[in-house]
Amino acid sequence: VQLVESGGGTVQPGGSLRLSCAASGFPFSTSTMRWYRQTAGEENKLITTISNGGNTYHADYVEGRFTIARDNAKDMLYQQMNSLKPDDTAGYYCYTQHLPGYWGQGTQVTVSS
Predict the structure, then answer these.
(1) pLDDT tens digits, 71-113
(2) CA 93 to the chain's CA centroid
(3) CA distance 86 to 110
(4) Across-strand partners of 57?
(5) CA distances from 63 to 3, 83, 84 (A)
């Protein structure tokens, strides 16, 4: 199983980024996928979830700004992040619930002027 995130970087407040997660080694199309983020000294925090059927969940603090999506034909997971704030600065990780659960290596997002 492999999850490889990309798309992080440094952006000014109010800017946008699109994160991608390339999945392999498991049945992606039937797996619930999630994005988490982590800042130094804190536990991973769930941001968004998308089920194999396309149902989505967005945490209150990103509702209306972040959107999770998937392309089952390409085994790809995405997160569009708009109206970024300095508080969004974190490492971002994709995660699959395919047992026993797997994490990607993460991609850093820094929001700073």
Answers:
(1) 999 999 999 999 999 999 999 999 999 889 999 999 999 999 9
(2) 6
(3) 7
(4) 49
(5) 25, 11, 12
